[in-house]
Amino acid sequence: MNSGLEKEYDLPMDDVNAFLNVRDTRIGPSKFAIKKYSNNKGPFSKRKDYVIFDKILTFEVSEYTTK
Fold first, then answer.
1. What is the residue extent of each domain of the chain?
2. Would you tell me how many other CB atoms lie within 10 Å of the CB of residue 32?
């Protein structure tokens, strides 16, 4: 992000593809909600991070397989 803040997420490929689709087409809102899944710490029933597209300088997608 242009503030120097870095975040890393472990997401299913469906979420990655949804992010890439919205980012590439620029259709829809200027932000994207990232679900926290099993990283939901504390008493909350749900948590999401919202990423604002014009604040992203670069991003990386690393794929792996689980055994």
1. 13-55
2. 19
Task: Give this prediction's pTM.
Answer: 0.65
Per-residue pLDDT of the chain (67 residues; tens, 9 = 90+): 567 788 888 888 888 888 888 888 876 677 778 877 776 677 877 788 888 878 777 888 888 887 7
Are 55 and 2 in contact by the 8 Å Cβ rule? The answer is: yes
